[in-house]
Design goal:
Blueprint: H1 2-18, E1 26-28, E2 31-35, E3 40-43, E4 58-61, E5 65-68, E6 71-78, E7 89-93, E8 100-101, E9 123-124, E10 137-139, E11 146-147, E12 160-163, E13 169-170, E14 183-186, E15 193-194, E16 208-212, E17 228-232
Parallel strand pairs: 3-6, 4-7, 6-8, 8-9, 10-12, 11-13, 12-14, 13-15, 14-16, 16-17
Antiparallel strand pairs: 1-2, 2-3, 5-6
Length: 247
């Protein structure tokens, strides 16, 4: 038994050390990456600890391709917690090569005020923008089918959001504590399934829900019927988000 515990101690030390260990395979031009295949990279969290807050700051542009040790890789995803707690990060440019943004990728990036998501994005993970309290507007691309739970939790400056016709469901606490939310554009003609607490702390009597003409199901659904509902042509070109974003 004594020998068993002596053997266990190094394993426990290694496990504890791993919580602050480096979480990336390579670093190029100040951006950290994890290798996901022979040809692809994922933007990575520098360290799995509070020290990650100093990993990124100011304006960051993610490249579509990266050359490392003589080999060129495509950058196709942003990993879990990649920018976690980077509260000095003010803007992020995401290339069209990105197909997936994983859970909590931008968790608590409280200084980012604008994010443009690429049209080819097909996965947007749970809580990806949780705590991004300076973002004022967001347009979700057509490749996304579900607004995952806690996606915009605590985005207290968020005033307008555009959800594509592909959206079929909105998860728990997706917009909870988005206390500045005034406009939700939903391009789906049939009301998506929506968790009852998805808009917790949002004043739905003041927030306008814009839906395509003839979309009567919104007036009958539990969550949606509490919004101030207006109909529009249901085309993205008709949406005008006249919100001034501080640069």
């Amino acid at each position: 038994m004594k020998n068993y515990f002596l053997m266990l101690i190094p394993a426990l030390v290694a496990l504890c050390s791993s919580t602050t260990a480096l979480a990336y395979d390579c670093e190029v031009d100040g951006i950290y990456y994890y290798r996901t295949s022979a040809t692809e990279l994922e933007v990575a969290c520098k360290v799995f600890s509070d020290n990650n807050r100093s990993a990124y700051s100011g304006s960051v542009t993610i490249p579509a391709t990266v050359t490392y040790m003589g080999k060129t890789f495509n950058v196709t995803s942003i990993g879990e917690y990649a920018f976690r707690d980077c509260n000095s990060l003010t803007s992020i440019t995401i290339p069209s090569s990105i197909r997936e943004i994983k859970s909590f990728a931008f968790y608590n990036c409280s200084s980012i005020n604008a994010v443009t998501l690429p049209e080819g994005l097909t996965e947007l993970g749970m809580g990806a923008f949780e705590g991004c309290s300076s973002i004022v507007q967001m347009t979700i691309p057509a490749g996304i089918t579900v607004v995952e739970e806690e996606l915009f939790f605590g985005c207290s400056a968020l005033r307008a959001v555009v959800l594509p016709a592909s959206i079929s469901a909105i998860g728990e606490n997706a917009f909870t504590r988005c206390t500045s939310l005034l406009s939700v554009y939903l391009l789906a003609t049939a009301a998506p399934a929506c968790e009852m607490n998805a808009f917790e702390k949002v004043d739905r009597t003041w927030c306008t829900l814009y839906v395509p003409k003839g979309s009567s199901s919104y007036q009958q659904e539990g969550v949606w019927k509490d919004f101030f509902i207006e109909e529009f042509e249901g085309k993205t070109e008709d949406i005008k988000l006249n919100i001034q974003v501080k640069q």
